[in-house]
Amino acid sequence: MTARHPGRALNVGAIMYLLRHGQSYFNLHFTETRRDPGIEDPELTALGREQAQQAARALEEREITRIIVSPYTRALQTVEPFLGRGVPVEVWPGVRERTAFVCDVGSRPDELAARFPRYRFDHLPPRWWHDEVESEAETVARAEAFRAAMREVDHETTLLVSHWGFILALTGISVMNGRFIEYDLASPPPENLVWRP
Questions:
Q1: Is the pTM of this model over 0.70?
Q2: Would you state the torsion angle of the CA atoms of residues 34, 38, 44, 45, taken in this order, to the nearest 10 degrees?
Q3: Sign of dihedral through CA atoms 76, 115, 93, 29?
Q4: Across the beta sheet with 15-20, what order do the strands follow?
Q5: Strands 158-162, 66-69: pairing kind
Q6: Could you give the CA distance from residue 16 to residue 156 in angstroms, rounded to a whole number?
Q7: Are the beta carbons of 181 and 175 closer than 8 angstroms?
Q8: 10 Å Cβ neighbour count for 14?
Q9: How far apart are CA 182 and CA 43, in angstroms?
Q10: Residue 19: which of 67, 84, 61, 65 has the closest Cα?
Q11: How many alpha carbons lie under 13 Å from residue 104 in its C-beta half-sphere?
Q12: CA distance linking residue 88 with residue 66, whole number of Å
């Protein structure tokens, strides 16, 4: 279930867990057809919800002190099985998916607040996702900014619930739906990225 990303640890607490959201309705249709089904901000499928439950069980014994999640519905639903741990959950738009398909059109903060009352969205701008197709360089820059921010608080043991493109930009690893990897914050940025799901 996990893959250790090689690297030199900064100190105790430098390891993060990076979890890709469970299967969404976009993933279900795109995998079958290789065509964008045109679903904005899709929800998880039944399989996606089960994948989220499995990830929560697999990480049950790990000491997680902080959870960061993307504002997309599929990520917010994936983090729900972790809520019983009493760990604070922070919604960060900077860890969103690379905008490339209709599924990467998000929901407004007021809509998210109505659907997910346990989370705070008042810090999000009305349109927190990228307007057009986001370049690889822009996604990599977001990943580098996240890496730098996490190195400043490396005493935390963070679970990041994010997306294929963002995790790829951060680590160079292509992660399947509902899977997680351990990530060493001291790891250098990946040199060669293959942008192919």
A1: yes
A2: -60
A3: positive
A4: 89-91, 66-69, 158-162, 15-20, 180-184
A5: parallel
A6: 9
A7: yes
A8: 20
A9: 25
A10: 67
A11: 20
A12: 6
pLDDT at 13: 43
- Residues in the chain, pLDDT under 70: 1-13, 154-155, 197
1, 143 contact by CB (below 8 A)? no
State which amino acid sits at residue 160: L
- On the 0-12 / 13-18 / 19+ scale of CB atoms within 10 A, 193 is middle
Strand partners, 158: 66
Dump the DSSP string for 133-193: PPPHHHHHHHHHHHHHHHHTTTTS-EEEEE-HHHHHHHHS----TT-EEEEETTSPPPS--
Tell the residue number behind the tokens 């741990």, with chain if given.
85
3-state SS assignment for residue 100:
coil
How high is the pLDDT of residue 1?
34
Of 60, 91, 68, which Cα lies nearest the Cα of 156?
Answer: 68
Spatial distance between the Cα atoms of 91 and 160, rounded to a whole number of angstroms: 10
Ramachandran sector of residue 195 (left: φ over 0; alpha: ψ -120 to 50; beta: rest): beta
